[in-house]
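Posted in: Protein Modeling Q&A

I'm a second-year student putting together a small comparison for a lab meeting, and my supervisor asked me to include a predicted structure for AraC family transcriptional regulator. I've never done this before, so apologies if this is the wrong subforum. The sequence is pasted below exactly as I got it from our records. If anyone can share the structure token output, I'd also love a short note on what stands out.
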Amino acid sequence: MKHSHPAFEAVKPNLGSSFTSLKFLKNENIKSHVWHYHPEIELIFVCGGSGKRQIGSNISYFSDGDLVLMGTNLPHCGMTNENTNNDYEMVIQFKPDFLGEQIWTLPEMQKIAVLLEKAKAGIVFSEKIKKEVGEKILEMHHSDSLSRLMKFLGILDELASTHEYRILNAGKYYLQTQVEDNERINHIFNYVKDHFKEQITLDEMADLSSMKVPSFCRYFKKITNKTFTQFVNEYRITHSLKLLAEQPLSITEVCFESGFNNFSYFNKTFKEFTGKSPSQYRKEFNYLIE
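Accepted answer (user: helix_wrangler)
Welcome! Here is the predicted structure, written out as tokens:
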């Protein structure tokens, strides 16, 4: 299988607008296997549906739509695919200086400037904020010109005023600082994405990165703030969350389908990541849905 580097995505603002606002109906924006980055900051609202998100070195599962903000050049995979079953997806993209570089120094813009700085590591917002802001994003999308811009600034202000969010990448996740790092780490991410159901050895990964195993381990930890084993386990556990929520498979089948070849190790790792056993997670998830 060919492993592509993260694609650079060229983004063009809407006609008569200083930023881009796009609405995709269900299944229209299938980019879940395209690892890409762009200088624009991106706000994504997925209305309903469930799926996996990979933003930087964070892999996580969302179960009832999503609202995320990603900073400039933060590599990510698309949020939706044909299995997401979302109603629609809103994508807003804007350059950091889309209103001129000086604007973020104004006292009125201080809160938003802080938000955009945090977004460099990726931010996911709570259920409550997602529902409130999602409706406003849709309303903004259907507005014209100045009204659209005013509503957009209102949305950014609302996101900057809440404490109901989670930073997705621990530490300083500025993958974009060096192009060769970006290329190398993305090569590794793509390999894990394509092979997480198989056994992946440190020797293989060190080879792929043209490094010796100890150097590879140090390098990976420095860039992602986690060990390679943690990263692969996180990928596998996130896949298992998706299967437990969406597929009528037995827990043993979920274990092997997610790339674990030892049931007790799967249970132990699952509990470390979620605080629950797989059967407890499934029971609670089904209870929530009902």
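A couple of things worth pointing out for your meeting: The chain has two domains: 7-167, 196-289. Residues 7-167 form a domain with the Jelly Rolls fold (CATH 2.60.120.10).
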